[in-house]
Specification:
12 helices, alpha/beta, 8-stranded parallel beta barrel, binds pyridoxal-5'-phosphate, TIM Barrel, Lyase, Ornithine Decarboxylase, Chain A, domain 1
């Protein structure tokens, strides 16, 4: 081992030669990089853990599709008996195609169009999580045309600080999501005017990557007080949807995720005596740590002040570091011990924000080395773009030593499909 003089101590790297029984070097050689790899067993473990925690409750887990919407992942969720929380007609179609029954699908989001509402009613989804009075009226109108009854829950904005990154906080009064309890109270008081909407549920989702039980406890207690008030006023509820938001470990030795049992215990306490159905919408919790982004070192650039590790993955593949200043552990796919070096880890995209890590201590790298960016299973590929005309990465599902490609690497032709020269000019 060559320990160069600028490193004072040798360093034994944590490394990841295998994932779900699959040799990552062989996988990357075969399929190329950047490559998203997901462990089916890791996802199943999360599902089983949450199900065990929910034992004895009438609860449905509606996986938040936007976290990772690959159809193979959705199929896995469906096979495990999960439902889906969707935020668009596209996600509805993905969920249905993957075999998730409409009766286990809930529809959230502030901007549902009438077309999307109609499509969801036609499919027979379980419930709309309604975010505004205007939307409630839109659902009433569309359901009236269809002559059907839509089930609806009002999304409560409990004005709770989720103690998470501002861009993934959703439960403050200043956020665009949900309505105040005062407004929801009026909806219920006037609900007999709704002929095609059965308003009999509450929904709350206060944010994402939450690592502290207190915001959950506070939000659920506000929701529970409102549920009891509604019940006393003659408005019994069929369901309470507690949303998602459970955080995960992005940074080993630092992030302390909430235990599923402790989380469910908070729900049990807050909603004690509730005899309707409980809905949960975890996204990140089920998939984040089950995914890695495999990438190779293109080159090392010695700047005047900093040393840059240039990867073949970039912000278009994994946006979270640029968008949220998010930390992802980065480890070599190699068990051999190496001295440490400090790098700014960057991608090839022409943006200063295309930075995965700054001043990160890593095992010394050489061009061609394979690295795994960890915690990439959620809000990774589902946020990817082709910025800088970089085709979308491939995705692979691993399961006990085997792998299946679940998204081919995009070709140039696929990337530009749909674009055309301006020749067929028309007046609107
Ligand atoms: C994004 C979202 C979720 C999932 O959030 P996670 O933090 O990934 O668990 C659940 N419900 C709603 C309404 C959402 O918008």
């Amino acid at each position: 081992m060559n320990v160069s003089s600028r490193h004072d101590k040798p360093f034994v790297a944590t490394s990841q030669p295998e994932f779900d029984g699959v040799d990552l070097q062989a996988l990357a050689s075969r399929l190329g990089t950047p490559l998203y790899a997901y462990s089916a067993n890791a996802i199943r473990q999360r599902i089983d853990g949450l199900k065990t925690a929910l034992d004895g409750l009438d609860a449905t887990i509606c996986y938040a599709v936007k976290a990772n919407s690959n159809r193979a992942i959705l199929q896995l969720m469906g096979e495990a008996g999960l439902g889906a929380d969707i935020v668009s007609a596209g996600e509805l179609r993905r969920a249905l195609d993957a075999g998730i029954p409409a009766a286990r699908i809930v529809f959230s989001g502030v901007g549902k169009t009438e077309d999307e509402i109609d499509t969801a009613l036609a499919a027979g989804i379980a419930r709309f999580n309604v975010e505004s009075l205007d939307e409630l009226h839109a659902i009433e109108r569309v359901a009236a045309v269809r002559q059907v009854m839509a089930n609806a829950a009002v999304r409560i904005n409990p004005d709770v600080d989720a103690l998470t990154h501002a861009k993934i906080s959703t439960g403050r009064a200043e956020n665009k999501f949900g309505v105040s309890i005062a407004e929801a109270r009026r909806w219920f008081a006037e609900r007999s005017q709704l002929k095609h909407v059965r308003l009999d549920g509450l929904h709350v989702h206060i944010g994402s990557q939450i690592l502290d039980l207190d915001p959950f406890r506070l939000a659920l207690h506000r929701v529970a007080a409102f549920w009891r008030e509604l019940a006393a006023a003659g408005h019994p509820l069929a369901s309470i949807d507690v949303g998602g938001g459970l955080g995960v470990r992005y940074r080993a030795g630092q992030d302390q995720p909430i235990d599923a049992t402790d989380y469910v215990q908070v729900i049990r306490e807050a909603l004690a005596g509730f005899d309707g159905r409980l809905l949960l919408e975890p996204g990140r919790y089920l998939v984040a740590e089950a995914g890695i982004l495999l990438t190779r070192v293109l080159r090392i650039k010695e700047g005047t002040e900093r040393r840059f590790l240039v990867l073949d993955a970039a912000m278009n593949d994994l946006l979270r570091p640029s968008l949220y200043d998010a930390w992802h552990d980065i480890v070599p796919v190699s068990p051999e011990p190496r001295p440490t070096a400090t790098y700014d880890v960057v991608g090839p995209v022409c943006e200063t924000g295309d930075t995965f890590a700054r001043g990160r201590a890593l095992p010394e790298c050489a061009p061609g080395d394979l690295l795994a960016i960890q915690g990439a299973g959620a809000y990774g590929m589902s946020m990817a773009s082709t910025y800088n005309s970089r085709p979308l990465a491939a995705e692979v599902l691993l399961d006990g030593g085997r792998y299946a490609v679940v998204r081919r690497r995009q070709t140039f032709e696929e990337m530009v499909a749909g674009e055309q020269p301006a020749q067929d000019w028309q007046a609107p």
